[in-house]
Amino acid sequence: MTSTATAPPETASAPPEAPPAPRPRRHLPALLVVPAVVLLVAALGYPVGWQVVTSFQHFGMMQQFGQPPEWVGLANYTALLSDPNLWVIVGRSLAFCLVCALLTVAIGLALALLMGAVGRVGRLTLQVALLLAWAMPVVASMTVWTWIVNWRNGLLNWALDRVGVDAQGHNWLVEPLSFFVVAAVIVVWMSVPFVALSIYAGLTQLSPEVLEAAEIDGAGGWKRLRLIILPLVAPVISIVLLLQLIWDLRVFTQIKLLQDAGGVANETHLLGTYIYQLGTGAGDFGMASAVSILMLLLTVAVSWYYVRSLMKEES
Predict the structure, then answer these.
(1) Where are the domains of the chain?
(2) pLDDT digits (tens, 9 = 90+) for 293-302
(3) CATH number of the 56-61+68-209+217-314 domain
(4) Residue 10 has what pLDDT?
(5) Closest C-alpha among 106, 47, 54 to residue 76
(6) CA geometry: angle at 103 spanning 98 and 106, to 5°?
(7) Is the dihedral of CA 281, 252, 177, 90 positive or negative?
């Protein structure tokens, strides 16, 4: 009887061990932010530091020629805070900032909704017009605007005369109220394109199904706008409103060029032009630096509420 040798059963090969999962690099996001922070500190740290130090010094014209500045401590701030003219300028700047920012966001929202409602040709026309207005250099556009409101041969007085309003020879820049109306129109006109295009970009991210469902449920246009569209684009509106508050509080070029075109400087100063007058005009760079620090604190105070709101939404 022959015996057959049985081969030993093959041993099952063990599955290969999975490679260890990579450890999450918790500090990588912070390291990626470091280059941007270094560049920001290098670009802004020295100017802001110089402003802070100079605000505690007497830094006039003699210091421009090498004489060491005199340390005066809080004397510049004491003189400013006891000056009633400063508080008039601060109140005027805050009022101008709030009016221009709110008007800009309201008009920009209306144009964004209009771009979403019209057809392709109308939308492209609006977008090109907004981009052209936004891309125009400030000095070039101010040259056109100062010609429009010129009291001798301006387009505004000419158009009013044609419709029966006697405005020939009326100077719109002499009276402070009409001066700031003109300035507000110019500032809003220059800022609306950015707001309109930003809000329209947010509107394009809305789900059409949500709006269609609301329409099927009987919600009219006003209800859809108030209960659906505005809450969904509220983060975009908050950001552009915050930016407008900051930009309009520190507006300078438009006010200065209108003053040069015929406005009374002492009655139409905002914080930006007041700092320019103290520094470049009067040569008192210590006082100008103190007003600059005050303007920085006002900017932080005005925007703090919106920054906190954005941080809460992010968290």
Answers:
(1) 56-61+68-209+217-314
(2) 999 888 888 8
(3) 1.10.3720.10
(4) 53
(5) 54
(6) 125
(7) negative
